[in-house]
Amino acid sequence: MHATGRNLPQLLGDARRWFEDALLATLEAAGEVHVSPTQAGLFAVLDERGTTVSELARRMGVTRQTAHQAVHGLVDAGLLEQVPDPSSGRQRLIRRTAEGERTHREAGRVLHRLEEELAARIGHEAAVALRAALEVPWGSPPVLGAQDA
User: Fold this and answer.
1) How far apart are alpha carbons 75 and 148 in whole angstroms?
2) Which CATH number does the domain 14-129 belong to among 3.40.47.10, 3.90.640.10, 1.10.10.10, 3.40.1190.20?
């Protein structure tokens, strides 16, 4: 039996939210532009050269409408911009502005400090083991038969 009675996906979700909540609160306390968790997630999956809204939605696992709303909020905040896609006359690429790049670098520094804080709380060896377990390729998601479940 597990100590908390919660399954691994629930625990991983809690861990992601711990980092997300700490990151957003730290950035806001430092005077950075307030962003929502969805906007932060979009920022994290954006390519350096730019990414279409459809691709952002796919990477985030959200609807195109949700990604579009997040993009517009970040454009309005001055963190993202839309530019023509050189490979398609119809599509536009979403990319970071200079301010968005600065904010992205600051978020990276905060996340590094949060990893250090986690290691201080759970122990350095546990943090190293956690990272190692999560970095191992898991392969494609299996489809379990009734006898396996």
Assistant:
1) 47
2) 1.10.10.10
Query: In 3-state terms, what secondary structure has residue 18?
Result: helix
Q: Determine the length of the chain.
A: 149
State the greatest distance between any 2 C-alpha atoms of the chain, in Å, as a whole number: 57
Q: Which helix (H) or strand (E) holds 94?
A: strand 92-96
User: What confidence score (pLDDT) does residue 86 get?
Assistant: 87
Question: Using CA atoms, how far apart are residues 142 and 148, in angstroms rounded to an integer?
Answer: 11
Work out the burial of residue 138: count CB atoms within 10 Å of its CB; fewer than 13 is exposed, 13-18 middle, 19 or more buried: exposed
Instruction: Report the predicted TM-score, pTM, of the whole model to 2 decimal places.
Output: 0.84
Return contacts of 63-67, CB within 8 angstroms, 24+ apart: 66/38, 67/42
User: What is the C-alpha end-to-end distance of the chain, expressed in Å?
Assistant: 17
| Residue ranges of domains in the chain | 14-129
Residue-wise pLDDT for 54-96, tens only, equals: 999 999 999 999 999 999 999 999 999 999 988 887 889 999 9
